[in-house]
Write a structure and sequence with these properties.
Helix content is 50%, strand content 19%. By secondary structure, it is of the alpha+beta class. α1 packs antiparallel against α9 and α3 runs antiparallel to α4.
Length: 569
Amino acid sequence: MFGKSFKSKVIVPAVIILITLTVVLTSYMTLKFLSYSDAFINKKIRANTDFLKLHISDHKGHSRAAATSMAHNPKAIKAIKSRDRDEILQVFTPVLKLYQITYFTITDEKGTVLVRTYDPDHVGDSLLKQQNVRDALDGKISTYFEDGTAIRVSIRTGAPVYDTDGTLIGVISAGVRFDTDEAVDILKELLHAEVTIFFGESGIRTTLRKNEKRIEDLKLTPEIAKIILQDKREYFGDSDFFNETGETYKTFYIPLLNANNEAFAAFFIGIPMSELRAEVNTLMRNIILISFIGLTIAIIILYLVIVSISEPLLILSKEMNRIEDGSLSILIDAQGDDEVGRVGQALQRVADTVHKLIDNINLTISEHAKGNTDYHIDSHAFHGDYRLLAERIMELSSLGMRDQLTGLPNRRSFDNRLDLEWNRAKREKTSISILVIDVDKFKSYNDTFGHQQGDVVLQTVAKVLPLPIRRPVDFAARWGGEEFIILLPNTDSNGALHVAEKIRIAIENTEILSIDGGAAKKVTISIGVNTQKPTRENSIGSLISQADEALYRAKATGRNRVCRYEGDE
């Protein structure tokens, strides 16, 4: 009976094949294994280089996240605006570990240092020589490898800091240092290799030791210096210039380019050849030993595999049924590298991708519900049909949140944003203003020049309206027909009147292109302004209706003017 079972049909031929393969492969590997040692060594060092590049990329991300996030932190903005060094240190120092960076440098709007977290007493000097700071003063966020007097090699991200009124008040520069003993020691532990950071041709930090002391005065050879610093190319190969250690290394050099695309520094990774050869030899001996041990226990293992192979298949089947029933909250413990393991991992990746897409959709819906019409799914985080699906979802979402003629957010988007800002103003006890805008004599204009020309008017007005408003929190939308509406959070009545007048003048000075190629035409607008501080006694409805009353008064008193609701004082 056993001879006819599935187990025997698999085990008997498998054992015969295993014995034959073990004898042949052991003999062959004994003769040929050394010829593959170089490939093994190269593969190991290249794996280390890939990890180093990923490590550098991660730190770039940490630096950028730290600078960008803190530039929008209300406490940080307040501290920088007040120029209080102690308060700045209290805000920035505790978050260094949170963002996994080494230091912050904060300057004023002219690039003059207010605080350095790593050297609080060194202030007052200019950082205009640093490109990341210059970019930030120009309103851009940028990340570069840069050097300085105290910090020779680091990744730095500069981000502009704006006051609530949009005024530039300073720059936050977030950096990750590579020119410290701690930095190279961490890399050595991660890479299991010797690490050196070069500034120019000189090694300034290294893990290489002689007599328990770090080696000093390391220099790049002229040949390698030319490749790395002049040609700005990576170098992979053997090196024995560390003659003080009496060792030859399998090495990799990667140049670090600054904002001017100059190779001003470089990383070195080195693994001693003696160590690599020892690993290869040990691996060869272990393979031979394992081959014969494996022959002894092969039958037992094979039997256990055959008996247990059905269990993960049953698990996969159950999880696939759950997915079919609409549940994506699955966690498949498929660690093996066999076919079953790979199927399980693939199934987990599919579930995770769909789950991620659903989370993105939910987040998009949530953001749009807040009036954030610019938020969108990052379709590049997906591939193939998943990316196409994400793009189609964004197209549908955009159709629901934006006016198709003008491209501005529609009334639904405005209602969502107004509700959000109204509640925020109520909590913070601040004023909120709206401008209700109507194109003067639009019906007559349509009757005279045609609806196509009318559409051109609405599109042109939609393009001009947002220009005078500079703050990110301000929000312009099409209200319907020839009406538009603008939301100005944290804006008093005088400020709202000022903005409204700038908009009125901008429209008055705008020439509308004619669709028939004739002379350009002009239109004017009337604007009703209302400002309230949200309380229990008033409401969003009264804010809008009172602005409508002010608009009606503007049109009734001659058009092309701004009127404020008389009761908002």
